Amino acid sequence: MAPSTSSAVTLNINGEKYPLSVDHRTTLLDALRERLDLTGTKKGCDQGQCGACTVLVDGRRAVSCLQLAVAADGREITTIEGMAEGGRLHPVQQAFLDLDGFQCGYCTPGQICSAAAVIEEHAAGWPSAVTGDLRPEAEPPPLTPEEIRERMSGNLCRCGAYVSIVQAVARAAGERARTAETEEEAA
Ligand code: FES
Ligand code: FES
């Protein structure tokens, strides 16, 4: 008997379970767009270089064009369609809107997913390639424009909306920090 070239998986996307039979070669990006009509996630280069297809897998950034759908079985996937909560835009989405962090919008879903994860990575104290002091006892670096540009460098924007993107990420990060402080004080 010839070996099977497809498998049954359950993709857990934005809190919903999607049982699916997928060819083993199907990328997560193609499963989202072609099989599940979740077309918010964009295909740019299809080879891991532009970031347009960025989604969150178990809370961490992943370029979905380089991830096989079978490898995403059972993981928690968040796409741009799942960023808003309870009818309210995610603070990163709101900041992109308010500060014009886009032009044509093609790279925007990937930018927003990436930015949401960048803010959490930074809040968790993860350094970047431009973080100066890497000693374990060092204070976490402030999320300067230089830090944001480095951390978002995997997301390209053909329209060159970078200035506004950096401002939007900074604003959303500031909001997150203030919310965390308020929650700490109230606890
Ligand atoms: S489409 Fe995935 S990185 Fe460009
Ligand atoms: S807004 Fe057009 S590619 Fe970024």
TrEMBL record:
Originating species: Streptomyces cinereospinus
Name of the protein: (2Fe-2S)-binding protein
A Pfam entry, by short name: Fer2_2
Matches recorded under CDD domains: fer2
PROSITE patterns in alphabetical order: 2FE2S_FER_1, 2FE2S_FER_2
Key words, A-Z: Iron, Metal-binding, Oxidoreductase
SUPFAM superfamilies, A to Z: 2Fe-2S ferredoxin-like (SSF54292), CO dehydrogenase ISP C-domain like (SSF47741)
Cross-referenced InterPro entries: 2Fe-2S-bd, 2Fe-2S-bd_dom_sf, 2Fe-2S_ferredoxin-like_sf, 2Fe-2S_ferredoxin-type, 2Fe2S_fd_BS, Aldehyde_Oxdr_Iron-Sulfur, Beta-grasp_dom_sf
Domain spans labelled 2Fe-2S ferredoxin-type: 7-83
